[in-house]
Amino acid sequence: MSTTDADQIEQLRRLWDQYGRVLTALGLAALIGVFGSFFYRGYLERQALGAANLYQAFQQPPAGQTADDLAKQLRDEYPRSSYASFVALLQAKQAVEADKPDQAERHLRWVVEHGGQVADRSVARLRLARLLLDQGKPDEALQTLSRDISADSAALAELKGDIANANDRPDDARSAYNEALSRLPADSGQAALVKLKLDALGHP
């Protein structure tokens, strides 16, 4: 072995003594990250499949099971899934149609508190605020709108107008309705409804 080779080997040995543990730790961390990501993706896929299967069963309950039981199982086992939120929103709608506002409120609040997607929570907040307003609770309705809903939502602006109108604040209501109209297609049915509300307020 030449002197040059021996010097290179000695230099490599010193480098390994100095940095070997760090390199080993970095390699292990990278390996753990790769396997962790793989197993996490598998976990998410299993969660999505399980929630989808329960939702399908909810739509057509098998013998010996009820839709309510399956809905509860879906909320308990897959609370962050959109399937769980969608079922709770559907149950709230059914409760409103059956004139059971307390049940509707319970389902909507569940989505607000547990929904895994901002879009689901946004829908739940808008519907909950509308329900509270219809029950004569405008201040609580307004507080419900404080999070999750896009600031440029036409539905949010319209609902704030309804709340202001209920609180006998016509100027605030008029401003909110005009804001809603600016965010709606001029020829849409919703725009026509907002215009009716605006006309009912009269001129300032």
Please give a structural write-up.
The protein has 204 residues and is an all-alpha fold. The chain has helices at 3-59, 67-77, 82-97, 101-114, 118-134, 138-144, 154-166, 170-182, 189-201. The longest helix is centred in the N-terminal third of the chain and has 57 residues, at 3-59. The chain is extended. The termini are far apart.
Give the topology.
Elements: H1 3-59, H2 67-77, H3 82-97, H4 101-114, H5 118-134, H6 138-144, H7 154-166, H8 170-182, H9 189-201
Helix pairs in contact: 1-2, 3-4, 4-5, 5-6, 5-7, 6-7, 7-8, 8-9
Q: Could you give a short account of the major beta sheet? A: none
Number of E-type strands: 0
Rg from Cα: 29 Å
Indicate the mean pLDDT. 84
Helix content: over 70%
Key attributes of the depicted protein:
single chain; 204 residues; mainly alpha; 9 helices; 79% helix
Compact description:
With 204 residues, the protein is mainly α. Helix content is 79%, strand content 0%.
